[in-house]
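Sharing a chain and its predicted structure for anyone who wants a worked example. Both blocks are below, sequence first, tokens second.
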Amino acid sequence: MISYNFLNDEIPEFDPEFFVLTLPELISNEGKEVGDISLVFCNDEQLLLMNKKHLDHDYYTDVITFDYTLHNFISGDIFISVDRVRENAIEYKTTFHIEMCRVVFHGTLHLLGYNDKTELDIVQMRAKEDLYINHFVSRETK
């Protein structure tokens, strides 16, 4: 089951139900089954505290994933900084929706076993993000 929560105010221009509908297909396309996935939307400061506490990293990030996957059932918590997504959308000259998709898909791909530690990993991860953005996001919203 895919669920979501806002640690701050909801985001008027954003419908998280999109991910409730798309993530099961993404996971199925990767040959896995949906377990329990929680999307938690927060701000920069909240995610920075988590990054320091859980990963011993003292910098802002757009997503942190906690993997609870068992066997073929993909489960975990994906924490997303809405502030980072907004800033990244401006920096990379894309829409808020596309950047939010990239970040949520990125977190989900981590749950599916993809990494971004090496250059090759990063290329593979980015290709998968692009594949699923092109698959799920209509051309009119790009």
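Comments welcome. Residues 101 and 133 are 7 Å apart (CA to CA).
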